[in-house]
Every structure is written in structure tokens, then in C-alpha cells.
Amino acid sequence: MVGVAPQDVKRLSDRDFRVPTLLSSGDMITRDTIENALKVADSFLVVYGSTESFTVSYKVFTLENISEHQQGMLGRPVAGTEIKIVDEEKRVVDIGKTGYLYFRSKHIVKTHLDGTSCLENGWYPTSDVCYLTEDGDLIMVGRSTDFIKKCTVKLSIKLIEDYIGRHPSVDAVVVVPIPDQAVGERVCACVTLRPDHEFNEVELKKFCTETMPHPDVFDCVSMHPDYILYFPSFPLLASGKFDKKTIASLALKKISKM
């Protein structure tokens, strides 16, 4: 079994090797990521967890069951772990309804380093917005901070990244909000490119127009990026994840010079 960060899976798809299983975690896994993983592995293991709890849920994908994938699918809880989805009032919601994910197990850290409890009545609260399917699979819509509020509409950052990441020239994409007096926040897509590809903003915007859902007739707010910026590479955190705060700051500086 080989572990790899979600943003690195695409880079492995054309390599000349094969492993029994690839494992990835730390972000929402797209269908495109799974398809790339299965080019070099017999199975792909999606794991959802946190520093405080290790593993909460998992899902194994193969060529035989990849059709079951849904955007944001995190699989089912590991043995000994309970989950629930609650609303703003901490009330459990119905199956299929979105809310905040809470979980509990004997493996969860009970206190923060300062000694204060990190649990609410035995449950660990998260900012992850999720829902449960009738089959018991956990689906993540995003984190409460993973949305861009444009006018009165909340746009899913993960969904926008998923669409842009399907372009063959794009290696990785990070979408960040750009403050704007007129609409509140605008959508900025920061991209790195695959080898032997050149940055073409016009082509990328055309791709977004052709593949992304059209704006709702009522609110007319589009998820299409207002800005698409090229980065030679993305700064990383010690964990290997993209440093999104630094990327957002650099994007704001680039846009201010336009």
C-alpha cells in the first residue's frame, strides 16, 4: 500500500509502475482523482480522519465499483466509530439532509493541550458540512469555510476546483475568495500546470463556460472563476498540503497589480 496526497495522484497516472493499493486522505477526492489512481493501482482507498481521531471513515474503490462514487464521498465509519449530522441548533437531521458532522469513538483525543475539553457531550464537533445517504455512506459537501459568498449565494470551493481540475493542462488548482465591494467575494482560481503545457487563460475560461453548470435563472450568480492565475508551484505546509492562506495572499497581490 502506498500513501499519496490527493494533489499528487494525477502526476502518477502516466508512470510506469503498478501497486496493489493507493491510499489518500486530507481532502475531498474527485472522480478524476480515483480514475487516475486506478491507472497505477488495483484499488484506491479513500480515508477520512483528523489529528484528534486518526481514521473516522473509509471507502475502497476499484474499476468494478467506481460508478458508485459521488462527489465528496467519504465512505462508511470504521468499526467502533459513531457519526451524526446536526443542524445549527445541534439537532440530528434526517438522512440526505446536510449539517455539521459529529463523531465519537474510544480513539478520540479528549482534551486540547491547554487541558480544556475538545468534546461536546462526548462527541467531537467538526466544521465539515456533510450528509448521509440511504446506504450509510458519508458525503462531504465542504467545510463551513470552504465556500465563497458571492452576492447572496454560497459557491462551493471544492466543486469549482473539481471542474477546473479536469482540464488536461491543469496539474493542481486552489480556489480562493477575493474581497470585492460590489458582490462581497469573487472567485479566483490559482493553477499549476502539467509538464509541456502553457498557461492559456482564455482557453481555461472557455473550458469553464462549457463544462460548469450555468447560473441559476433566479439569482444569476455563476461559479465560473472571475480570475484565473498561473503559479509555477504552490507553497506547502509541513503536512504536505497546500498553504491556502499564503496562496490567497499571493493571489490578492497579483490581482492588485492588474
Automatic annotation (TrEMBL):
Residues 160-240 form the AMP-binding enzyme C-terminal domain. It holds the Pfam family AMP-binding_C. InterPro entries: AMP-bd_C (IPR025110), AMP-bd_C_sf (IPR045851), AMP-dep_synth/lig_dom (IPR000873), ANL_N_sf (IPR042099). Residues 19-110 form the AMP-dependent synthetase/ligase domain. This is Acyl-CoA synthetase.
